[in-house]
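Trying the structure run again after the queue cleared.
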Amino acid sequence: MVPQISQYDNIKQIFVFCASIVSHLHWTIDYTDRLLKFDHPDELLERLWNEMKRHFREQAQQCIQQAEELKEQAKQYKQPP
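Done. C-alpha cells:
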C-alpha cells in the first residue's frame, strides 16, 4: 500500500504502525523521506495529534491573514470620495 500512496504529491507524510520496526527495514528504506514508523500506539497518536495541530494552526493563520487583507480592501470602499 505504501508504494501506491507515496506516488501522490499531496501526501506529505505516511505513518505506519507495526509490531516490529526492524522487521520492516528492508522495504521502508525506499520511503525514508516521507515514511514515519511507529511500534508504540501512544507515540503514533501523539505524533498524529501534533501534526494535525500544526496543520490546523497553519490553516488558521492563513485565514486570519486573508481576513486582514479583505478587511483592508473593504476599508477602501467605505471611505468617502
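The first strand starts at residue 14 and ends at 17. Worth checking whether this holds up in the mutant runs.
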